[in-house]
Design brief:
- The protein has 330 residues and is α/β, with parallel strands linked by helices.
- The protein has one domain: Alpha-Beta Barrel (TIM Barrel).
- The protein contains 13 helices and eleven strands.
- The strands form three sheets. Strands 6-7-8-9-10-11 form a six-stranded parallel beta sheet.
- α9 links the parallel β9 and β10.
Length: 330
């Protein structure tokens, strides 16, 4: 069985169906809360649920929630949304980028992690093995002491840099993957440092085919995309609709370039919908329905205009590739 671990249960990968590979559903990141950045606080379970229902009503079946411990998980709310909408949701163990670690730990997390004051202090004063054991526990036992287990492990790095503590978390996540066989996801800031992340993982003995790399469409560099693809990693184009970073035409053309180079089996698509202003039912944004309702038909039209099989490619990006990417690797 190619098994995928959702928050509620393990499923066969064939049960995933149409999948968004990188989203955030309900989360209150401590770093942004401390700085009063309300747009970045997805803090209303019922509003988030309405967007997930929109996705379900269009035939969506699975969402990968990439919210790590340092990004303010609201585990019970996300679990309830999964139960109430029927959408499979994959949870995430591990870490994000380092500037988020300046945030203070609340009393619950202090008790859970060892009475440190900040995420930074926790990561700095823990060994790689201790951090790896934490990630393993969240995969094998449950997120933050619950019974809801993670289905992938994650690390992150900053813009054009990897700090010593970020490298520490990469190595910890690598060790956790080797122990649990959970798929690995990485955050890149503006699509930078992907190749450098890969080199560290190789040092730890990781098969790069078990890795998906986020925000590749934040750096629309065809040469970089080819270099990453040749390592075997999945490339996550998870900024759909964010035209402030690039026009949709450029994002789609970058996907076509990878397809023509033979890498259609390594492409994932999602929206990283992590702001109230992106959600339809918070702040009248495009919402979780946008990709399936608007972007997919556009992509098919543009693919057909370039003599590509758009329907086949959409099935690969949203069904076949997630099945392979998010399966536990025996």
């Amino acid at each position: 069985m190619n098994r995928v671990r959702t928050l509620l249960k393990e499923i066969d990968a064939t049960e995933m169906g149409f999948t968004y590979s990188h989203e955030h559903i309900v989360c209150v990141p401590p770093y942004w809360k401390e700085r009063g950045k309300n747009d970045l606080l997805l803090d209303d379970k019922e509003k988030s649920k309405l967007d997930v229902k929109d996705f379900a009503n269009l035939g969506g079946q699975t969402i990968v929630d990439a919210t790590a411990i340092d990004y303010g998980r609201c585990i019970k709310d996300v679990v309830d949304i999964s139960k109430e909408t029927g959408i499979h949701i994959v949870g995430t163990a591990g870490f994000n980028k380092s500037f988020l670690w300046e945030a203070k730990l609340d009393e619950r997390l202090k008790k859970l992690l060892g009475n440190f004051d900040t995420f930074m202090e926790w990561i700095d004063q823990s060994s790689i093995n201790e951090l790896a054991n934490h990630v393993i526990q969240e995969v094998e036992e449950g997120l933050e002491g619950t019974n809801y287990r993670a289905g992938q492990v994650k690390f992150g790095t900053g813009y054009n840099s990897i700090t010593p503590l970020e490298e520490k978390t990469i190595r910890a996540v690598a060790k956790a993957h080797l122990e649990t066989k959970a798929p690995i996801h990485s955050h890149t800031e503006a699509g930078t440092m992907a190749l450098e992340q890969i080199e560290i993982l190789k040092q730890e003995g990781i098969n790069i085919r078990n890795l998906s790399i986020g925000h590749m469409d934040r750096n629309l560099d065809p040469y970089l995309h080819l270099q990453v693809a040749r390592t075997g990693a999945f490339l996550s184009f998870d900024g759909i609709a964010k035209v402030k970073y690039a026009p949709e035409s450029s994002r789609i053309q970058a996907i076509f370039d990878l397809v023509r180079a033979g890498f259609e089996d390594q492409i994932l698509i999602s929206g990283d919908t992590a702001r109230k202003s992106y959600y339809k039912h918070y702040d009248y944004g495009l919402g979780l329905e946008y990709i399936k309702k608007i972007w997919v038909p556009r992509f098919i039209d543009e693919a057909e205009a370039q003599h590509l099989d758009g329907e086949k490619l959409i099935h690969k990006f949203f069904v076949d590739n997630p099945m392979r990417c998010f399966s536990f690797k025996d």
